Amino acid sequence: MINTTQVSFFTLTGYFDTGLVTNLCFIVILALYIFIVGSNVLLIVVICVNRSLHEPMYMFLCSLFVNELYGSTGLFPSLLVQILSDVHTVSAPLCFLQIFCVHIYGAVEYLNLAIMSYDRYLAICCPLQYNTHMTSKKIGILIAATWFYPCFAMAPLLYLTSPLQLCGNTISKVYCDTHSVVKLACSDTTVINLYGLLATFSTIFGALLFILYTYMKILLVCFSGSDQTRQKAVSTCTPHLASILNFSFGASFEILQSRFNMKNVPNMLRIFLSLYFLTCQPLFNPVMYGLKMTKIRNICKSLITNIK
C-alpha cells in the first residue's frame, strides 16, 4: 500500500512517442498557446481601455476571456514540457495544482455563460428595467460569485483527495484530474465520488437549466416582438449559444471519460477529445466574439489600422 507521502510524482501514460515530429508538435502547440494568449489579452485590453465598452455584457465577456487565459495556462505549459520529455511524470503538488486549475476553469466557464444569458434575458425581455437591474454593484457581485463559488466548492474535494492512500501513481491521460487520482485509491472513496458528482452536476446542470430558462423567455419575446427585437436577439445571442454548445461538447466527453471505461475509443481520439474543452474554447471565444460583436470588431480594426 502506497500513501500520499510516498507518491511524490504521477506518471502520465496518455503520451506516446511522436518520433521525428516531436519538434513539430511542440511548435504547433506553442503557436496555438501564443495565439490564445495574444487574442484573449487583446480583447481584455480593448474592453478595459475603451469606456464605450464599459457595459455589463462586455464586463462579463472580459471575465470570460480572463478565464480562457487561466484555463489554457493551467494546461499548455505542462503540455509543452511533457512533449519534449522522455519520461512523462509530474510531481504530486503540481498535479494537484493542475487539478485545481482545470476544475475551476470548467466551473467558471459555465457560470460565466449563465450570467451572460441572464444579461441577454434582461436586455431583450426587460429593456426598460435593464439599467435598474444591472447596476455596477450587481455586475461586481455576479462576477465575484462566478469565481469564488467554484473555489469554495473545489476546496473540500482537494481536502478529501490529497490525503488518500494510493495503490499506484499512473494516470492514463495527458494531464491530471481528480477522478484519475481517486481511482488509484486503496481506501473507500464513496464520500469523494458523491461530493464530486454533486459539485459537478449542481454547477453544470444548474447553469444549463438557468440558461435554458432564459433562452425560452427570449424566444417567447422574439416570436411576439418586432423585427428589431429579433435582430437584436440574433446578433447578441448567436456567439453566446455557439460558445455554450462548443464548450458543452468538450466537457461532456471529459465527464463521460472520467466516469466510464472508454478504452474502446481509439487513443488518439480520446486524447483529442479530452483536450478539446481546454484548447478549443479559449481559441473559439475570442475569435467568435471578436468577429461577431460589432463594437469590439470596429475597435480592433481601428487599432490595426493605426498600427499600420
From TrEMBL:
<dbReference type="InterPro" id="IPR052921">
    <property type="entry name" value="GPCR1_Superfamily_Member"/>
</dbReference>
<feature type="transmembrane region" description="Helical">
    <location>
        <begin position="96"/>
        <end position="118"/>
    </location>
</feature>
<feature type="domain" description="G-protein coupled receptors family 1 profile">
    <location>
        <begin position="39"/>
        <end position="289"/>
    </location>
</feature>
<keyword id="KW-0552">Olfaction</keyword>
<comment type="similarity">
    <text>Belongs to the G-protein coupled receptor 1 family.</text>
</comment>
<dbReference type="GO" id="GO:0005549">
    <property type="term" value="F:odorant binding"/>
</dbReference>
<keyword id="KW-0297">G-protein coupled receptor</keyword>
<keyword id="KW-0807">Transducer</keyword>
<feature type="transmembrane region" description="Helical">
    <location>
        <begin position="237"/>
        <end position="256"/>
    </location>
</feature>
<keyword id="KW-0812">Transmembrane</keyword>
<dbReference type="InterPro" id="IPR017452">
    <property type="entry name" value="GPCR_Rhodpsn_7TM"/>
</dbReference>
<keyword id="KW-0675">Receptor</keyword>
<feature type="transmembrane region" description="Helical">
    <location>
        <begin position="20"/>
        <end position="46"/>
    </location>
</feature>
<keyword id="KW-1015">Disulfide bond</keyword>
<dbReference type="GO" id="GO:0004930">
    <property type="term" value="F:G protein-coupled receptor activity"/>
</dbReference>
<feature type="transmembrane region" description="Helical">
    <location>
        <begin position="194"/>
        <end position="216"/>
    </location>
</feature>
<protein>
    <recommendedName>
        <fullName>Olfactory receptor</fullName>
    </recommendedName>
</protein>
<dbReference type="GO" id="GO:0005886">
    <property type="term" value="C:plasma membrane"/>
</dbReference>
<keyword id="KW-0325">Glycoprotein</keyword>
<dbReference type="InterPro" id="IPR000276">
    <property type="entry name" value="GPCR_Rhodpsn"/>
</dbReference>
<feature type="transmembrane region" description="Helical">
    <location>
        <begin position="58"/>
        <end position="84"/>
    </location>
</feature>
<dbReference type="InterPro" id="IPR000725">
    <property type="entry name" value="Olfact_rcpt"/>
</dbReference>
<keyword id="KW-0716">Sensory transduction</keyword>
<keyword id="KW-1133">Transmembrane helix</keyword>
<dbReference type="Pfam" id="PF13853">
    <property type="entry name" value="7tm_4"/>
</dbReference>
<keyword id="KW-1003">Cell membrane</keyword>
<feature type="transmembrane region" description="Helical">
    <location>
        <begin position="139"/>
        <end position="159"/>
    </location>
</feature>
<dbReference type="GO" id="GO:0004984">
    <property type="term" value="F:olfactory receptor activity"/>
</dbReference>
<feature type="transmembrane region" description="Helical">
    <location>
        <begin position="268"/>
        <end position="291"/>
    </location>
</feature>
<keyword id="KW-0472">Membrane</keyword>
